[in-house]
Specification:
It is a multi-pass membrane protein. It is found in: Cell membrane. One of its GO terms (cellular component) is plasma membrane. The protein has one domain. Helix content is 81%, strand content 0%. The radius of gyration is 19 Å and the shape is elongated.
Length: 213
């Protein structure tokens, strides 16, 4: 049995035993880099809604609130642990304080809000986007709003899919590898885009300073 299958089996047992509190815990843990496929958890919860264990809107709401809590924990880890570490070790990692300033400018702009919002709907990205947002000291309220706005459609899609599939909800797992592959591609594209934006911002700011001098 693979790690993913084991995680899904354990998640199913927890969900059937604890109900909505279990769904909340799993949704939070999923965004803390736990080996829990969020799409399978939501599909299972959607199937249990068919059985009458939950209401479908409860599944989406509780799952999204769990995502918010998990993402806020990641945000704080990025802010209070990863950021100081980068400031101390940045010269060894080729990350300067100037790079952090550019990242801050990006995540405090509309681009940062969009990055978190759409990142929540992309596998792979959705579990890590909180770290750079915390490192860059993104506005906490904007971060929370973007997280909720992105988590709701993701959770609703897979919960409804599980609701439609019923007993066949595990078919979602057959596409997990494809979903993960898409996530890796999206993460790579997002990293390239962010790097390009940061470099463009750096050149623009440098040019402004030169003209001002």
């Amino acid at each position: 049995m693979s790690l993913t299958e084991s995680a899904v089996e354990a998640s199913a047992q927890l969900l059937e035993r604890l109900g909505l509190p279990g769904l909340f815990a799993l949704s939070a843990a999923e965004l803390l880099l736990a080996p829990i496929p969020g799409e399978a958890v939501m599909a299972l919860a959607g199937f249990l809604a068919v059985r009458g264990a939950f209401e479908l809107h409860e599944v989406v709401l509780v799952g999204s609130l769990g995502n918010l809590v998990g993402s806020l924990v990641e945000y704080l880890l990025g802010l209070y642990l990863a950021r100081p570490a980068l400031l101390r070790l940045g010269k060894y990692l080729l990350v300067s304080e100037r790079d952090l300033e550019l990242a801050e400018a990006f995540f405090r702009s509309k681009g940062g809000f969009a990055a978190v919002l759409f990142g929540r709907m992309v596998p792979g990205v959705r579990s890590v986007i909180s770290f750079p947002a915390g490192i860059a000291r993104m506005n906490p309220l904007s971060f929370a709003l973007a997280t909720i706005a992105g988590s709701l459609p993701w959770n609703a899609s897979f919960a409804y899919l599980g609701y439609l599939l019923g007993e066949r909800w595990q078919e979602v797992l057959a596409y997990s590898s494809l979903i993960d592959a898409a996530g890796i591609l999206a993460l790579s594209a997002a990293a390239i885009y962010l790097l390009a934006r940061l470099r463009a911002s750096g050149r623009s700011l440098s040019g402004t300073r030169t003209r001002g001098a």
